[in-house]
Design brief:
The chain has 133 residues and is an alpha/beta fold. It has one domain: Rossmann fold (3-Layer(aba) Sandwich), CATH 3.40.50.1010. Helix content is 58%, strand content 10%. Strand 3, helix 7 and strand 4 form a beta-alpha-beta unit.
Length: 133
């Protein structure tokens, strides 16, 4: 049984939903089928706010709620606060949503799959495992 977990960032879901990259589609399909693709509340919020219609909103809502979810609990919030402070002291001004997503991945020992310029900057400071696609 594969116990490796992958937190899929919004940037990858956007590529997937727009059909922009066949390799992204294939990788995500495999991870979802193996039950290794995880999400979290902030990623769901970022995806749902981009829905083009009520019908699309409902479809995305149901699809994302079917994924295993990593809770942004008190420990994740406290880690996020600490990480935001640590990154700022290093001169890195990372968007809050990205700090929370990175902290969630680190807390749950997930590999973060992304297509975002901010996460490579945070990797070494936050003990974060990433894959850029």
């Amino acid at each position: 049984m594969n116990t490796e977990k992958f937190l899929i960032d919004t940037s990858i879901w956007v590529k997937y939903l727009r059909g922009m990259d066949e390799s992204v589609r294939d990788r995500l399909s495999t991870l979802v089928l193996k039950n290794c693709a995880y999400t979290t509340d902030i990623i769901i919020m970022e995806i749902l706010r981009g829905a083009k219609s009520e019908k699309e909103y409902k479809m995305l809502y149901n699809d994302f709620l079917a994924l295993p979810e990593l809770s942004i609990n008190k420990e994740v919030w406290e880690l996020s606060w600490r990480n935001a402070y640590k990154l700022r002291k290093k001169g890195l001004n990372i968007p809050m949503a990205d700090v929370i997503i990175a902290s969630t991945a680190a807390h749950y020992d997930c590999t973060l799959i992304h297509s975002d310029r901010h996460f490579p900057l945070t990797e070494k400071h936050l003990n974060l495992k990433t894959i850029k696609m």
